[in-house]
Specification:
With 189 residues, the chain is of the alpha+beta class. The chain has one domain: Double-stranded beta-helix (4-Layer Sandwich). The protein contains five helices and eleven strands. The strands form four sheets. A four-stranded antiparallel beta sheet has the order 4-11-6-9, with no helix packed on it. Helix 2 crosses helix 3. It starts with a strand and ends with a helix. Keywords: Dioxygenase, Iron, Metal-binding, Oxidoreductase.
Length: 189
């Protein structure tokens, strides 16, 4: 689902924004509304953990206002420009080619499964239990979720498309550092 996905119009050289087809479906809009309180929660985690990245996401959402063709109005609950839902699917090893390295993906594991999250570039095998949230530079690190033994796996994958930021002229952030996060803690106390 995406409130404003960048795509090139067939044979014209004009760039336009469109809502994803799935977001136009009433059932999907209703589902997004029902989970919006949780999406706000995950966005707030991103705002604390990755403040510059979250700010870039908020700026993209503000910049796209009124620029999406045939947009169905809804309050987008995430700092991320896109949300994908993966249900009971293995995720083959891959890198995400549509984003900048500093626009970290947020992966939220739900369900009743016992899956593992693999990052071969680091030789890492992480427990990917329901309730797990992972921030990952999917552009840099190859990652996968292979077959698991039991249970249902649901993953909410949050990410930002680099071309959306390009088109909206929103600057991508530098890497978040510990100093950035500690600076936020001081401002909020």
């Amino acid at each position: 689902m995406s409130p404003a996905t960048f795509q090139q119009v067939h044979e014209r050289l004009v760039d336009a924004f469109y809502q994803s087809t799935s977001l136009k479906q009433k059932a999907n809009r209703e589902w997004l509304l029902k989970i919006s309180y949780v999406e706000y929660f995950w966005s707030n985690i991103a705002k604390v953990s990755l403040p510059d990245m979250a700010r870039a996401g908020d700026q993209a959402m503000l910049a796209k206002a009124g620029r999406v063709e045939n947009e169905i109005s809804l309050d987008w609950p995430s700092v991320y420009t896109n949300i994908d839902i993966i249900v009971n699917q293995e995720t083959p090893s891959h890198r995400d080619v549509t984003s900048t390295p500093t626009l970290l993906d947020s992966l939220v594991s739900l369900g009743s499964h016992n899956a593992k999250f693999l990052i071969p570039d680091l030789g890492a095998e992480l427990a990917y239990s329901p309730g797990t949230m992972i921030f990952l530079s999917g552009k840099i690190l190859q990652h996968s979720v292979p077959k698991w033994e039991k249970g249902e796996r649901i993953a909410l994958v949050h990410y930002m498309k680099d071309k959306v930021h390009d088109r909206l002229k929103v600057t991508r952030p530098a890497w978040t550092t510990q100093k950035d996060i500690l600076g936020l803690a001081v401002r909020y106390t």
